[in-house]
Amino acid sequence: MRARRPFVRRLRIGGRTGVVLLAAGLGVLSPFALVSPASAQQGSDAAGTWATPPQVDESALPPDERKPDQPYQKKTECVKRSLGQNIEINTIPWGQSYLQLDKAQQIVRSAKGTVGGGITVAVVDTGVTPHPWFQGRVESGGDYVATPDNGAQPGLQDCDGHGTEVAGIIAGNPQDPKVGFIGVAPDATIRSYRQLSSNYAVDQNASNNTGQPSGGTGTPPGNQNGSTPPGGQNGGQLPGTGGGGGEVGGTAPQQDDKGDTRQLQKEGTAGTLKTLAEIIHGIAERGEASVINMSVDHCRAADGAGSIQAGEQQVQAAVKFAADHNVVVVAAAGNVSDDCPQNDQADPNKPRSIVTPPWFADDVLSVGAIDETGGVASFSVHGPWVGVAAPGTDIVSLDPAEGSTGLANLTIEGTQQSPIQGTSFASPYVAGVAALVRQMYPQLTARQVIQRIEATAQHPAAPGGRDDFVGYGVIDPVAALTANLPNDVGILAAPKPVVQTAKLPPADSMSSTPMIVALAGTGGGVVALLITLFVMHTIRRNRPTGPPS
Asked: Which sequence positions are flagged as catalytic?
């Protein structure tokens, strides 16, 4: 027995060692032992700084003066038709198919008779050209750049070609079965406010009545170092439409390979945060729209102190005022550029770039972009403020050139063509869905509409179903229009039960022959066994019991 004790001790020691190693292994593999978020590692001081704006200062809300804040002059001619560059567009844009917009539109049409009818969406952008596929549903909201020089009403001249494409995604309606493209809410009304333009700059020869810097110094189009980014706008149309889109070299810079690069308060352009805040305030105060789409942004470097600039303060106060007055505010999340680096730092609560209006996520639904694979687009700026995502690449929309009757799907630099892309074009998909939800459920408040769109999105595999790339996920228009959510109790009408006919599985039509053969074989075996037992029993009974003679 003693000879075995060392062996037993070795077993015990080995067992304990194994337990320790096993526990260590489980600890390494356990999800609780994974590297914690950077915000947790940095301590509580990381949360609530940089990424979170200061408290709203409602006294910063500017009155809507309904005019430009400075005198601007045109420096680049407006987008022109370019018939020599036309291409045919005869397929349904991938974004429409991805979002199953046809099904969403059928749901609304069946319930309401129209798709977006009675809903007005304010488009704060570069203006909107009254394309014939709007059927006269474009209204003048105001012009904060200049009086149109083509005789159009304020806000209804689009020199840049940006706002028309944005509005087309919301409410374009070709009314032609041969055309695959259609807007999200094709019966909605668009109210256009021209607030931004890369084709205009501050007029240095005119007096500045405000005495404040605004859009730049009148330098040639370009970034802060004076380089000239790509320009041009081009489009294509379906056969026989006679449309087009843009003349080579005929429009101002719009995008590069990273997406739409226009920015508010960019040197040599028109458009400031102050006029943006004025427009938002005015729309809400006068009740001019129930949804606002802003595919315009201001991006700056984060200073790490959570400070806020004067213009940002004004926009923050304006979007809160709008949300409080039952207006859904939708904004593009922003695009990566030299002046707006990607938020790819380790700590998501300490972004490198701050983007306004998306920064004010309490009152703004900001929209990131995905590509055709369903993945986040490389140019889409990340951040804690991203609410949802929508298609933002290979965009097809209405041709913005004056007099055009077709579609556009390209921008052009010299002779180089590139597809239209950017979070600017993801945002109107969401604004269009917001218009449909407002039509379908008029009793919902603006914040409830936003919550519904977020709650029904295709959530990413992240804690809480949200990340800094696509927010709560890619929008799901059908779900946004049909889902019964827990917070809908007492708000939405109870769904009517539908009697469903029971669909039983078909009767088993398999042949019974194999079963009969199997049973017959089994029965035969039993009979043979009984006969054998009977014979053996008979032989034993008849066997003589005495000794042999």
From this structure: 125, 162, 424
